[in-house]
Amino acid sequence: MALSSLQNSPSAEDYLTAALKAPVYQIAQITPLQEMKKISERFDNVILVKREDLQLMHSFKLRGAYNMIAGLSAQQRANGVITASAGNHAQGVALSASRIGIPALIVMPLATADIKVDAVRRLQAEVLLYGVNFDEAKAKAIEIAHQEGYTYVPPFDHPAVIAGQATIAMELLQQAPHLDRIFVPVGGGGLIAGVAILIKQLMPEIKIIAVEAEDAACLKAALAAGYPVDLPSVGLFAEGVAVKRIGDESFRLCQKYVDDIITVNSDNICAAIKDLFEEVRAIAEPAGAVALAGLKKYVQQHDIKGERLAHILTGANINFHGLRYVSERCELGEQREALFPVTIPEQQGSFLCFCQVLGKRSVTEFNYRYSDINSEQARIFVGVRLSYGVDESADIVADLQQADYDVTDLSHDEMARLHVRYMVGGRPSKPLNERLLSFVFPESPGALLKFLQTLGSYWNITLFHYRSHGTDYGRVLAAFELSGSEALFEQHLAALGYEYYDETNNTSFQFFLAPHSQLLTAHIGNSQQLPECSN
After folding, report:
1. C-alpha–C-alpha distance, residues 394 and 389, integer Å
2. What pLDDT shows up at residue 521?
3. Is residue 18 a contact partner of residue 71, using CB atoms and an 8 Å limit?
4. Does 312 have pLDDT greater than 60?
5. Residue 456 carries which DSSP code?
6. Whole-number CA gyration radius for the chain
7. Is 529 exposed, middle or buried (0-12, 13-18, 19+ CB in 10 A)?
8. Non-local CB neighbours of 304 within 8 Å, separated by 6+ positions
9. Under DSSP, is residue 18 helix (H, G, I), strand (E, B) or coil?
10. 43-101, pLDDT tens digit by residue?
11. DSSP at 288
């Protein structure tokens, strides 16, 4: 059955037949299923990883793209194919079209990294750079398809694409027929729809667990509403699953065949990337590690032991510079590091005193700067390596408080983790009518210029921190000195059009960076008796 020609919802039998007949192995390969022995021992389960990162183009996306393109009619092939993508789907369509020998046009957002554009062009596809984001590129691709007669190849929401992805499930059953659960990442839902419908036709006792990034949980939102809905925004760290709306056909199948769902945050994903590297030497892209992150969290939440669990490593096309962020965050994701602001006496030997209270625990970070404005006390930012997770973090707080140190746990304070830990060490000595904002800052040409022209030429910027992590959006922390012009400032913020959050009263900012005059009402230790060090 040629699912590429169907417009209505195919039956389960149709999907099973299409998956069994899918010609994907003309281009794709059967990828190995490997046991992760260390993590299996740690979680007391047999944990297996399906290595789709070893596929051509290092992603599972090739299966669905080729299955749809191979099923096109002679006339459709002659007219060529088009899609919109800045990632793995673009390369899957380009390679598939090249192998079949038909024209391909890939519409990519203007800010797409050169390495991705060059990769598509090397596969003999034509590239059109258009739009500031994926939605604009997609709209342009569909417009061109209607005007020029191209066939649009969607990344997930098409029966032929779903059937192509379902071939992964066939391989899983052949490689490990006695599985208890399969964990599958969700973006637009094409992969999990294909896996779920095939598994449930052949071995319905196997549980299918959907895993989504917390900041792009479009399936969870659709299940809650009963139908696909648009998320107001999505996080782009795991860009391969950063989809605002689940596909209609994908949702129909997920609603019927998926057993459960769990969400994970960026730190969980970073920890999973590290696990995959240490176990099988795979360098997964963030989206590729989502399923393992969900597996680990699900096992802990449900106290699962003695089962055979598989997850799909979907891709390995990571921006190299993004590894810096992964390395920094994976310890937090594994609950192997805690962050604390602590007040200690501004005197010789105080650090030694402090470390004596910590005992044999390893200090991973110690940030401090001398201040002559308040020379009786110092405020330090400390990272401590944990051996047994969040319970140990509470123990550390208790030990320090018992020793009369003023301490707070900032391990879950996103601003502390993303910005303040790199900025500790100075504060203005004069009063400032200062407002602190964090911005979601688009990584596109002219974005910084627009920011400065809209805000920087009217108000003095008193703080600015930015770190690029290789995604489509960066994070900016900026403070502005206002002088009775709040209403005008709000007007300019609206004109800027960037997503932002007011962080002026954030605990970590008040502790380390706010002017001293703002600390008169601060909650940390100004009137408290500081501890004395005893040998």
Report:
1. 9
2. 45
3. no
4. yes
5. I
6. 26
7. exposed
8. 45, 181, 298
9. helix
10. 999 999 999 999 988 899 999 999 999 999 999 999 999 999 878 899 999 999 999 99
11. G
What sign does the dihedral 370-376-380-385 (CA atoms) show? positive
Residues 6 or more apart in contact with residue 360 via CB below 8 angstroms: none
Q: How many CB atoms lie within 10 A of CB 456?
A: 15
- Residue located via tokens 């004069």: 430
Residue 131 — pLDDT band, cuts 50, 70, 90? confident
- Give residue 385's pLDDT: 81
Return the DSSP state at 410. Answer: -
Of 78-92, 327-341, 388-402, the poorest mean pLDDT is in 327-341
- Answer yes or no: are the C-beta atoms of 429 and 435 closer than 8 Å: no
- The mean pLDDT of 449-474, rounded to a whole number, is 67
Whether pTM exceeds 0.90 = no
Please give the helix or strand (H or E) that residue 296 lies within, else none.
helix 290-302
DSSP state of 59: B
Q: Pick from 162, 183, 156: which is nearest to 261 by CA? A: 183
Distance, in Å, from the CA atom of 164 to the CA atom of 194, rounded to the nearest integer, reads 8
- Number of other CB atoms surrounding residue 16 within 10 Å: 19
Residue 104 near residue 80, CB atoms below 8 Å: yes
Question: How far is residue 140 CA from its own chain's centroid?
Answer: 26
Which H/E stretch holds residue 421? Answer: none
What's the maximum distance between 2 C-alpha atoms anywhere in the chain?
86
Q: How many residues does the chain have?
A: 535
Q: How far is CA 60 from CA 244, 313, 316, 393, in A?
A: 21, 9, 10, 39
Share of the chain above pLDDT 90, in %: 45
Is 5:68 a contact under the CB 8 Å cutoff?
A: no
Per the model's pLDDT, the better-predicted residue between 251 and 349 turns out to be 251
- The residues, ordered by sequence, that sit 6+ positions from 30 with a Cβ below 8 Å of its Cβ are 171
Q: What is the pLDDT of residue 233?
A: 83
Q: Three-state SS across 165-229?
A: HCHHHHHHHHHCCCCCEEEEECCCCHHHHHHHHHHHHHCCCCEEEEEEEHHHCHHHHHHHHCCCC
pLDDT at 392 over 90: no
SS3 of residue 134 by DSSP: helix
Q: Which residue has the tokens 């913020």?
A: 493
d(CA 103, CA 151): 11
Q: What strand order describes the sheet that includes 500-502?
A: 460-467, 473-481, 434-442, 500-502
CA 467, 500, 512: angle at the middle one, nearest 5?
Answer: 60
Structure tokens at 409: 């746990």
- Three-state DSSP state, 119: helix
Q: Which two tokens mark 255?
A: 């609603």
pLDDT at residue 371, as a whole number: 56
Rounded Cα–Cα distance for residues 161 and 29 (Å) = 17
Residue 141: pLDDT band by 50, 70, 90 thresholds? very high
* Separation of alpha carbons 307 and 290, rounded Å: 20
